[in-house]
Design brief:
With 314 residues, this protein is an alpha/beta fold. The protein starts with a strand and ends with a helix. Bound molecules: NADP nicotinamide-adenine-dinucleotide phosphate (NAP).
């Protein structure tokens, strides 16, 4: 629905950062409006078990996000299912235009747009995306029942995806470019105890092989980083789990960013280089990137915005 309106606090993004900012903003009587973006609930909606959210020994990612959304609405935030197309921070009030044609002006803006899956960048990866190449085991694992598949990456996501995929696949090979994982130790232990997963150390993926008709994957060409030797693994699926890219394109060239596209914030705060624009969560954080740290930063952003707005009106 098209809207043209002014709000005091606008929040963009609906992960733990955005919803926490909305809860705090609403409780500060700022009547925040939150625009959810293309993937309401963010990255946690494509994970399964979350076992490190305090107070929940085990909760499904999508359930946790629905509960956060309900909480934000109950606190008094307005949550809009829309996607932001353009932001103009060059003048006050800040202007935001959405895909649905709505335009907003706001006194304070919280950027909580998070991050998206990183891809290997191979032409053959593009070719077979959706036809055997995926970045979401939760979404696509079911299609690989009885297949021999591979996962690439060595972080928490790769290990969790490999473990999850053993529910469906005949075998899972974890391809990693080094000889040790960066995933949490508890996940590593689960991986090494799982006989359905075979790690392939010191290898990178150089090409995904397949057929055109039907379009499907038949193999993965890998290179040994120590010898440069290449071999082909007969696999019918590849899950890419090599990290994330911050979703900062909407403010590129407007707020200061650093290598990798992460938005720069003042030390110990969520203030960006533009007064009135705050950033938090995976958009700024290349180190911790946890649901709980994102939520903490969402809280900080709301408190920073509240202080900014109070000083504006003083
Ligand atoms: P990550 O921790 O950044 O790990 C990315 C992995 O991909 C690394 O092992 C990296 O190798 C590898 N890699 C990167 N670029 C590559 C390339 N071009 N080719 C081959 N390998 C490549 O990313 P993540 O696993 O997505 O996790 C992101 C954050 O979310 C982390 O902070 C993680 O703790 C968090 N997370 C938490 C949970 C949980 O708590 N349950 C679940 C998922 C994610 P190197 O190791 O050699 O750099």
């Amino acid at each position: 629905m098209a809207e043209n309106r002014h709000v005091r606090l606008l929040i963009i993004g609906s992960g733990p950062t955005g919803y926490t900012a909305a809860i705090y903003g609403a409780r500060a009587m700022l009547e925040p409006v939150l625009i959810q973006g293309i993937q309401p609930g963010g990255q946690l909606t494509i994970t399964t078990d979350v076992e490190n959210w305090p107070g929940e020994k085990n909760i499904q990612g999508p359930d946790l996000m629905l509960r956060m959304e309900e909480h934000a609405r109950a606190a008094g935030a307005e949550v809009l299912t829309d996607h932001v197309a353009q932001i103009d921070t060059s003048r006050k009030p800040i202007r935001v235009r959405s895909d649905a044609g709505g335009s907003f002006t706001c006194d304070a803006l919280i950027l909580a747009t998070g991050a998206q899956a990183r891809w290997l960048g191979l032409p053959s990866e593009d070719k077979y995306k959706g036809f055997g190449v995926s970045a979401c085991a939760t979404c696509d694992g079911f299609f690989f029942r009885g297949h021999d598949i591979a996962v690439v990456g060595g972080g928490n996501t790769a290990v969790e995806e490999a473990l999850f995929l053993t529910r469906f696949a005949n075998s899972v090979t974890l391809i990693h470019r080094r000889d040790s994982l960066r995933a949490e130790k508890i996940l590593q232990r689960r991986l090494f105890e799982n006989t359905g997963i075979e790690p392939l150390w010191n290898h990178t993926v150089t090409e995904i092989l397949g057929t055109d008709d039907p379009k499907s994957v038949t193999g993965v060409r890998v290179r040994d980083v120590r010898t440069e030797d290449e071999t082909v693994l007969q696999r019918t699926g590849l899950f890419v789990a090599i990290g994330h890219i911050p979703a900062s394109e909407l403010v590129a060239g407007q707020v200061e960013t650093r290598s990798g596209g992460y938005v720069v914030t003042e030390s110990g705060s969520t203030k960006t280089s533009v007064p009135g624009v705050f950033a938090a969560g995976d958009l700024v954080d290349s180190v911790y990137r946890q649901a709980v740290t994102s939520a903490g930063m969402g809280c900080m952003a709301a408190l920073d915005a509240e202080k900014y707005l109070a000083e504006l009106n003083a």
